[in-house]
Amino acid sequence: MLGKRSKQASRDGLANGGWIPSASLGLTVVCALVILAIVVQLYGDTRENVDYRCIVDGSPAGVAATENALISARVTLVPMGRLCTWHAANGGVVLDQSGWPLTLVFLGCSALAVAFTTYGALKRYASGLVPLAVLAAFWLGILAYVNV
């Protein structure tokens, strides 16, 4: 009787979505690490002053060799990083954008969090809301940082 009960309990745990709280926790940890990487990248891209970071990090190929080659610099939401606009040597404009790799990873993480949260909501698991709460807090922080 005891053996049947423990086997039944373990089967019910998986059959009723018992893996969702573990997957939700794992996804939250992965998203937290991605968030940390993005915060570090944003800090690296924008520390001191965005204009200063564009100049110090060097201009891309094709930029005019003048002292005032940098037209503008700003922090961007998508991709999460900075956009440096330079005068080109041929008279046009050269754009230098940072942040695409981590932004794409984070958007993938966001899609997974929405999927897990939706599944958790359908099954009525409160733990399914954890990844979405972490992502919402991050997006609100980024929106405040970028001043959108």
From TrEMBL:
It comes from Microbacterium kribbense. The lineage of its organism: Bacteria, Bacillati, Actinomycetota, Actinomycetes, Micrococcales. Keywords: Membrane, Transmembrane, Transmembrane helix. It comes from the Bacteria. The chain crosses the membrane at residues 20-43, 100-122, 129-146. This is Uncharacterized protein.
